[in-house]
Amino acid sequence: MNFLITGVAGFLGAALARRLVREGHQVRGLDDLSTGDPNRVPPEVLFTRGDVNDRPKLWTLLHDIDCVYHLAARVSVPESVLYPREYNQVNVGGTVTLMEAIRDVGVRRVIFVSSGAVYGHQPTQPLREDMLPNPGSPYAVSKLAAEHYVHTIGRRWGVETVALRVFNAYGPHQPLPPAYPPVVANFLYQAVRGGTLVIHGDGTQTRDFVYVDDVVQALVAAATAPGVAYQTINVGSGVETAVRDLAERIVALTGRRAQIIHNPRGQSGVPRMRADLTKARRLLRYEPRFSLEAGLQATLEQDSRFHMPAPVPQQAL
Ligand code: NAD
Ligand 1 in contact with 133 (CB < 6 A)? Predict the structure, then answer.
């Protein structure tokens, strides 16, 4: 098949590109490199640097494409609180521009990568797709608005659309920006250096951490699965882990003497998040394969940022 991936130089986009290329598909990729790294993109991908709001560029890229994966976005919840206009322009505006270009050129299917963040604070768990979303940040609002645009424009023009609500993805080569780093990569980085793992709040807040290969498995299935048009589907591990528990497991796994501290005034977000996977299992035959331990272990092994020399034994000092 011929695929276009927007946000191909990002964490999830590059992992998806590697998998599609390995399976022998033709892959084009678009990324403005605002946070993406071109070195992540496999050489077999026909890569174009550009903005997802550039409609003429999209027309060219979309020619002869069967399926579009739309991942280009600004992705930080706290940053979106500071810059909501930018999040609206890229995540909502960029999605509408892409859907207009898709309408003009004609593509069979679009897979939009949404987020579990759209659920926000809910009275019950696990989180099911038919719950009323309660977005608690401009990022979450932008993802929810983009879901509606994708499905609505898709329906009107006969383009099959699928929105996948990905929960907290982690794995090798996840970007680690100095401001608002993602929790798993940040904890691993601190732990292997014997640094400090800072937990915002009391650490009882839970998240559904899903390993990148499991996310890619769901993304790949969504391209060809029957009966998924205009559906919104959760992609997580189905397991909730308290952030405090995550920190302790990572320290134990790395075997370093890292410290865990609490920032009581930090933003801890919603108290609980766990994906209900019933719909993903039914429609995508999705089954997460990586336990948290296995995913953390694989991340440590495959990401050189987490490779540290063994600590010097006490008696050698
Ligand atoms: P990422 O930041 O690594 O990737 C996003 C990519 O989009 C980057 O390479 C960036 O350069 C590119 N981009 C940003 N603005 C652009 C623009 N205007 N035009 C073209 N490219 C642009 O983040 P990621 O974790 O790989 O996330 C990919 C997608 O998955 C995003 O849509 C994100 O909202 C969604 N998602 C991620 C997670 C997660 O835990 N990683 C969870 C839920 C949803």
Answer: no
